[in-house]
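Protein fold
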Amino acid sequence: MTVIYDVWHVRPIDDENDTGKHIGFFSSEESAKAAIELLKTKPGFADYPDDFEIYDTRLNLTGWAYGF
C-alpha cells in the first residue's frame, strides 16, 4: 500500500478547543518535514512552531471498515 504524509498545524484556542490548518499531503516524510521547516517561521505559524503534526496515511485503505 502507498503511504502518504498528511501535515496539519493544530494549536489550542482554550482548554477545550483547538484550531487546525491543513498544510497538505506529501509523498515522503522528508518532504513533509521540509514543508514544516519552511512554514514554521512564517506569520501565524511562528507563534506556535511546535504545533505541526504529521500523520502517515495509506491510500486505498477504507477507514472504519467494521463500523463504529
